[in-house]
Amino acid sequence: MSEPLIAVPDDFPSVFEGSAAHERAKALGETRVVSARGADEEAELIKRIGRSRVAINIRAHAKFTDGVMGACKELKLISIWGTGTDNIDLEAAGRRGVTVTNTPGVNAFAVAEHAIALMLTVGRKIPRIDREMRGGAWPREMLTQCLGKTLGVFGTGTIGARVAALGKAIGMEVLTWSARTGDARAKEEILRSADFVTLHLRLTPETRGFLGRKELSLMKKTAFLVNTGRGALVEREALLDALATKKIAGAGLDVFHDEPLKPGDAILGFDTVVLSPHNAGQTAEVVRDGLLRAVKNVENFLAGKPTDVVVAPVK
Question: Which listed residue (42, 44, 259, 299) is catalytic?
Answer without folding.
Answer: 259
